[in-house]
Sequence to fold (175 residues):
Amino acid sequence: MDLGEYLLFIPLLIYGIALSDLFSKWKVFIESHTAYMPYLITLVMVTEIGVQNVFNFFKLMPNLDSVNYFTYWIFLLPPLVFMILVNFLTKTDDYSDFKTFFEANAKVVFILMATFIAMHFIPQFAYETERWWLPRVIGIVGCILFAFWHKPAVFYLLVGCWIISVVAHAYVVYS
Fold:
């Protein structure tokens, strides 16, 4: 095991813990008849973003061989923010229904999501910045707009942008 693989372990462990929290909420939707569609869509969106970031983190492995302590913390920031985002998204115990929970936590969740997306503009994550800067900027703006202005149209516009970016990413990968 070389240094890059060793240093990759902690961020991937953080992503793994966060994704296990997300997947544990999927069970609630399978068994529940009180599912709230925007919350379900957000859960799916955050899950896909998390899995994609785990996959993309392997592209950073060559950069980790010569990293210093402070730069390593920069590599740890996105997984830590993602884990905080997931914690706010999955702690539904104090709420009777998902709609009340989603509306009460949407501001924090979408500000954290905008922060997480913005962290991919850090130079250490520049392996794909040239190609994906526009969807990221649209995602950041959409998340901030929805965080402060809870309109269904804004939410579904954000979801539409996410779907377009997933399809575009799949097209680039498989063509």
In short: Residues 3-31 form the longest helix (29 residues). The helical segments are 3-31, 37-57, 61-64, 69-90, 98-118, 129-148, 152-174. The mean pLDDT is 84. The chain is about 80% helix and 0% strand.
